[in-house]
Amino acid sequence: MAHDHDHTDAATGLPPITDDDLDRDPLTPARRPLWVRLLGLFATMVVFVIALELMGDGIKAIGRGSFDLEGFLRTATDSPLLGLITGILVTSLVQSSSTTTSLVVTLVATGTLPVPSAIPVIMGANIGTTVTNTIVSMGHITRPDEFKRAIAGATVHDFFNWMSVLILLPLELLFGVISRPALALAEAIPGVDSGGLGDTPFDQLAGWLFESVLGENGWVTAAVGLTLLFIALRYLVVFLKSLVLGRSEGALDRYVFGNPLVAMGFGMVLTFMVQSSSVTTSLVIPLIGAGVLTVRKVFPYMLGANVGTTATGMFAAAIAISSGEPEAVAGLEIALCHTLFNVFGIVLIYPLPFVREVPIRMAEFVGELAFKNRLYAVAYVAGLFYVLPVILEFIF
Q: Of 95, 316, 305, which Cα lies nearest the Cα of 206?
């Protein structure tokens, strides 16, 4: 079999995956029928998504009662910088930008929070939501080569959102480049009476497990979610590798990730359907870790997910309008601010190659650091998403 490793895969730079490599795992021998592997992949993805939902439910339950999210958002937005930090911290804690943005939209729609104070929180939520796929990349920590690729694929999303904030927050504070067009659009829309898509089947199943099986115990739920996450992650990689032995890798590259606009559209539509950018961005981390996709291929997909996740805020605004809230137009305005922030970030950063390279190079640098010492990756997640925001909250 030595001749199998005489060359490397042109797409990944790694030795090609052989039948012998996959036959070591009894659950997914490469010679199993394609439909068996596809069914196994689907089942593993279901477990993966439910694990993310359970982890989020558990973390929210842990904080419930001791952490007044709504009150915290009202009092911790006195300045743009504090609002940004608050958005990062709250979203990192609940691992859901949808939760943060929906609550912000509701607070704005009821007149509790003014739009100028809410915009930095929305921007911070965009950064905070990337913590989930970065945590997911930690599932590869025992395999250095996979971990290097996975952490780079996860953090490219972080660095893009940071760049968007660094460019657009000053422009918004000086010229209202986001709020002005958002207000014009909100006033031009005559009325919305949709109540949104409601919970997905994954939300409902995770909710049933949380309430009926796990007894609404936050610590137990979070632990179960994390355990399922790592198990699912392991077999996602195995199933994905088994599928790319044939033409699947070429098809994936050709029809989804080969064209940046298609990848961007796919990320947007998928996120709109599941109403969670954390889920859709986390799903591709095993693909990157396995060497099936590269950071550059996945980058536009991540940007599409950024836009797709703004649908949740739009639904929250629609509910406020249909319920006759007096400041409902302001709620719609902040929801549109979220959408425009993500769209403007893509327009300003992605079309220019030298600007587009910045988050990619920074992500690859983090991958190299993590490859040398995995503690760098742990310090990156803990410091950027939790320790630093908490310190800054106390300072400001």
A: 95
pLDDT digits over 146-201, tens only?
999 999 999 999 999 999 999 999 999 999 999 999 988 887 765 544 444 455 67
**Lookup result for tokens 């077999």:** 235
- With b for 16 or more beta-carbon neighbours within 10 A and e for fewer, the 286-295 pattern comes to bbbbbbbbbb
In a domain, 20, yes or no: no
- Print the domain residue range for 388: 33-395
CA angle 379, 380, 384 (to 5 degrees): 110
Of 128-132, 252-256, 336-340, least confident by mean pLDDT is 252-256
Token output for 236: 């996602």
Query: How far are the Cα atoms of 70, 223, 225 from residue 217, in angstroms, in the given order?
Result: 22, 10, 12
Whether 91 maps to a domain, the answer reads yes
Is 264 among the domain residues?
yes
Q: Is residue 183 part of a domain?
A: yes
